[in-house]
Design a protein that fits this description.
Strand order of the largest sheet: 2-1-4-5-6-7
Bound molecules: adenosine-5'-triphosphate, magnesium ion
CATH class of the largest domain: Alpha Beta
Order of helices and strands: EEEHEEEEHEHHHEHHEEHHEHEEE
Number of helices: 10
CATH architecture of the largest domain: 3-Layer(aba) Sandwich
Number of domains: 2
């Protein structure tokens, strides 16, 4: 899929921008702090009405303004759609072809953008929530039913945790929540396990493309309970065993919200033993892996690689650019300097962006 044109109003440093993109590689070039990542962020925002840089939408609104606006033309095969998002201080409004969407999941299903950003260098060292966010975002794109199950689990957890914070909460009600959690968790754990295996089917290949040498590399999913026969019964008994703990801590201590995965590279855990560069290339390979798992050409994601060339040696940058040009579809690469034959160049300066070719 492609984003052919974007309009920004009061989005971060852009007061007003209208620009068309190339359908293959787009190089977003300019000195520091001119708005390259801001433009890349706007493109990514189309994917789930969420930024990768900030959980606070207010920071996306240009200073001193009340709201920000993004409008984009999305092509998927022969389908043409216009997505618009108005980001207000307290709410956002998403429209597809001018019609307001009832649920954000309508947008999630429609637009798929993968992102690699400088902060991903610490993906394996940071808290598990970032790794779960990767799994959840990738799985939600692959299967809308996953997002439904996940939302249900999160709302059950919220309710149960609220109840746990009350004086003498009803044990019957806590038990009822636990039973529903056990049921919905089975779906999530199964899908997460299967997805990690699919990632492993392409991860060594992607890493080899980046490093130029064969790599042994795999992720290990750490479910709160091993999937398999009688999962729901086993989960129920786990919740029963942990009830006193949960009552004491006033929150649910086990479940899909505590899961994690780790990555082994060259036989070692990359978070504990990997160099900065190894952490970077492993995160990059992981972030690109979902691209190779989408089989339908028209549904292949748009890729955003923010500042990807910095901190990589010249050989790796060259390998990566080969991936961008030979494997990936529409891709946005931000950099202060980079040469890439045949790429559409977008020059960013003074908080404005213009297409050079
Ligand atoms: N809400 C906002 N309103 C106005 N300006 C903003 C807002 N948020 C960020 N900026 C400005 O945007 C600029 C940074 O833009 P951006 O992160 O896109 O830079 P960049 O070109 O990617 O730089 P680098 O090469 O350092 O990564 C900063 O000058 C920052 O002050
Ligand atoms: Mg930047």
């Amino acid at each position: 899929m492609n984003v052919t044109r974007i309009v920004l109003k009061d989005f971060r440093s852009y007061e007003s921008l209208e620009i068309e993109f190339g359908d293959k590689t787009n190089l977003i070039l300019g000195p520091n702090a001119v708005g390259k990542s801001n433009l890349a962020e706007a493109i990514y925002y189309l994917s789930a009405a969420r930024s990768w840089r900030s959980s606070d939408d207010d920071s996306l609104i240009a200073e001193g303004k009340e709201s920000a606006y993004i409008e984009a033309r999305i092509h998927e095969g022969s389908l043409r759609r216009t997505v618009s998002i108005e980001i207000g201080k307290d709410q956002k409004r998403v429209r597809i072809n001018g019609k307001p969407v009832a649920r954000l999941s309508e947008l999630t299903e429609l637009v798929n953008v993968l992102v690699f950003s400088p902060s991903d260098v610490s993906l394996f060292r940071d808290s598990p929530s970032d790794r779960r966010a990767f799994l959840d975002a990738s799985l939600s794109k692959q299967d809308p039913r996953y997002l439904k199950s996940l939302s249900k689990a999160h709302s059950l957890l919220r309710e149960r945790n609220l109840l746990l914070k009350q004086e003498n909460p009803s044990r019957d009600l806590l038990w009822a929540y636990a039973r529903q959690l056990a049921e919905v968790s089975e779906i999530i754990v199964r899908q997460r396990e299967a997805y990690c295996e699919s990632i492993n089917s392409v991860l060594p290949m992607v890493l080899e493309k980046i490093t130029g040498e064969p790599s042994d590399c795999r992720i290990t999913y750490k479910p709160f309970l091993k999937p398999g026969p009688k999962f729901v019964e086993r989960a129920e008994s786990l919740y029963r065993d942990k009830l006193e703990d949960d009552l004491f801590k006033k929150s649910t201590g086990i479940g899909i919200h505590r899961e994690d995965f780790s990555l082994r590279y060259k036989g070692k855990d990359v978070a504990q033993y990997g160099s900065q560069g190894e952490n970077r290339i492993c995160a990059l390979a992981l972030k690109l892996a979902p691209y190779y798992l989408v089989k339908d050409e028209a549904r292949k994601p748009i890729c955003v690689l923010d500042d990807v060339a910095s901190e990589l040696d010249a050989a790796r940058v060259a390998n990566l650019m080969k991936i961008v040009q030979e494997d990936l579809g529409q891709t946005f690469v931000t950099a202060t300097e980079l040469r890439l034959e045949g790429a559409s160049i977008i020059d960013v300066a003074d908080h404005n962006a213009t297409r050079r070719n």
